[in-house]
Write a structure and sequence with these properties.
The protein has helices spanning about 70-75, 85-95, 105-115, 120-130, 140-145, 150-165, 170-180, 185-220, 225-240, 265-280, 285-290, 290-295, 300-325, 335-370, 380-415, 425-430, 450-460, 470-485, 505-510, 515-520. It is mostly helical and about 525 residues long.
Length: about 525
């Protein structure tokens, strides 16, 4: 035994139970006992020389140190209580009921729904102060702005806490109270939302102004549109029997309603026919004015409202920044970031105002170019471009129909040239100069023998003969006359059984001497 070690204990002892407590009342402890007396040896795989002696073998259970235990205290701590579970449930219910409720039902429900998508109350304050986008999105900012408590709610929550300092606030009340203690929370959320929204608003205005600028240029330089307008003016002056210098652009929306009285085709169809006949190289009007289509789908008033809203939000953000600066150090990183952003935004808004004014002047010149006085009768860009865009769509439909109709007629004309001629004869004719056939000879059937000989004569025509229907007809007629009447020497076909005689007639009429000699009988 090592010097200074605690004395070894004998067999383990069991403490006596206090009075009034039974073994069944104690908490159960489940383990498997270790019986040192049943340890007989080592597994067979261990060699005999390596096996230690069992006598005197050390064991933690034999050398455990002596400890003192207060069995009375253990009995009081680990005694089963039959009503413990019921009391715990009642305690939880009592705890849940004992919270401060100040908000009404609708307001509490609104806060609860918003809390499900927002950071917890212990993180929300720091996330707002640091403007952390990883925790709060643009939609979350709008939700937080609705949850900011009013002065009445602040007073109610504060008074309830002072009156019941030991009772905690409800979840909704706690969240609202956390938002109320954030300094200048509304100003911070306003600036944060403006920083997120400004880029999208700027892109919307800038894209529209760029499209409007390109629209003014493409409408003034579109040669296809100029030709169509010229055709409309000429047709209109003829129908009105008066000479007009031009017409209002609104008339383009009525062109599709004017139809002729014979074929019931619209004026657009006839204009498309003329364009395809006299100017086939012109492109598709609908594709040439792509910027015009986009301007026709966006309201100019909405763009101006967006521009005014950007200017107002910028001014309000400056006011909010002044309010925040009263409670925040000027060296704060978030404060410096907001200040730099607002300076940049003010410059970009001023540039957009200049661009808007210049693009407006371009559009005024476009209206004057089309004969519209912008002072007396101003047309918004979306209305003006929508009229031209819809007309371009109608024109594209009609020009495609005209192209298909012309192609169909051309195909039928080619088919009529070879009607009534054999395919082999067509190949022979195509190989020479005279590849066509007049309509007058189409009545000759392909199976007629005359047809083949006439065509053979036609192939002998000199190459310098004019290739006109009249000349071809005269050549075919002369070839037919020079052929003359056809001489046919038709031989009578003899039957294979011509030498055979009927046996019945032979026996009845008898056989002549010549026939006997021919048979070799005589």
């Amino acid at each position: 035994k090592a010097p200074g070690a605690p004395p070894a204990l004998g067999p383990p002892t069991v403490g006596t139970l206090p009075k009034g407590i039974k073994k069944s009342n104690l908490v159960n402890v489940f383990w498997n006992k270790v019986n040192l007396n049943k340890i007989t040896g080592l597994p067979p795989s261990v060699p005999a020389y390596a096996a230690p002696k069992l006598e005197g073998t050390k064991s933690i259970w034999k050398e455990r140190p002596e400890v003192k235990v207060d069995y009375d205290q253990l009995a009081s701590l680990f005694t089963k209580k039959t009503i413990e579970a019921k009391k715990s449930v009642d305690t939880e219910k009592t705890t849940q009921m004992k919270v401060i409720r100040v908000l009404d039902g609708n307001r509490s429900r609104e806060v609860g729904i918003a809390m499900a998508k927002l950071p917890a109350s212990r993180h929300i304050k720091q996330a707002i102060l640091n403007m952390d986008p990883s925790h709060i999105s643009r939609e979350s900012i709008a939700s937080l702005a609705k949850l900011i408590p009013s002065d009445e709610e602040k007073n109610q929550i504060t008074e309830a806490k002072l009156a019941n300092p030991d009772i905690p606030l409800g979840k909704e009340e706690e969240y609202v109270h956390t938002l109320s203690v954030i300094p200048n929370i509304r100003s911070r959320l306003n600036i944060w939302a403006f920083m997120i929204d400004f880029d999208a608003m700027e892109d919307e205005v800038a894209d529209y102004l760029m499209d409007l600028k390109e629209c003014c240029q493409e409408l003034q330089s579109c040669q296809t549109l100029h030709l169509i307008i010229s055709y409309i003016l000429e047709i209109g002056n003829f129908l009105r029997q008066e000479k007009s210098d031009g017409f209002e652009i609104m008339f383009l929306s009525k062109v599709a309603d004017i139809k002729d009285t014979v074929k019931k085709q619209t004026m657009v169809h006839h204009i498309a026919t003329m364009m395809h006949e006299h100017h086939p190289a012109q492109g598709d009007l609908h594709k040439e004015i792509g910027h015009t289509h986009r301007i026709g789908r966006i309201s100019f008033d909405e763009v101006e409202v967006t521009m005014e809203k950007m200017d107002e939000l910028c001014d309000r953000s400056w006011e909010d920044l002044r309010i925040i600066s009263k409670h925040t150090s000027s060296t704060n990183d978030v404060m410096q970031k907001q200040l730099a952003f607002l300076k940049s935004v003010a410059e970009r808004i001023d540039i957009l105002k200049i661009v808007l004014r210049r693009v407006k002047n371009r559009y005024y010149n476009l209206l004057l170019y089309f004969g519209i006085d912008p002072v007396k009768k101003f047309m918004p860009p979306d209305e003006f471009c929508r009229i031209i865009s819809e007309f371009a769509l109608e024109y594209r439909t009609r020009i495609e129909a005209v192209i298909l109709e012309v192609a169909k007629k051309k195909k039928m004309k080619e088919r009529r040239k070879t009607r009534g001629i054999k395919i082999t004869d067509i190949k022979n004719l195509v190989s020479g100069k005279h590849a066509g056939r007049p309509e007058s000879s189409a009545s000759t059937t392909p199976a007629d023998p005359k047809n083949t000989k006439v065509l053979a004569k036609a192939k002998s025509i000199p190459p310098d003969t004019p290739d006109t229907p009249e000349e071809v007809a005269l050549s075919l007629e002369s070839a037919l006359k020079t052929e003359g009447p056809r001489k046919r020497t038709r031989q009578r076909l003899k039957s294979k059984m011509a030498q055979r005689k009927s046996l019945r007639r032979t026996l009845k009429s008898g056989i002549t001497d010549e026939e006997l000699a021919a048979a070799g009988i005589k």
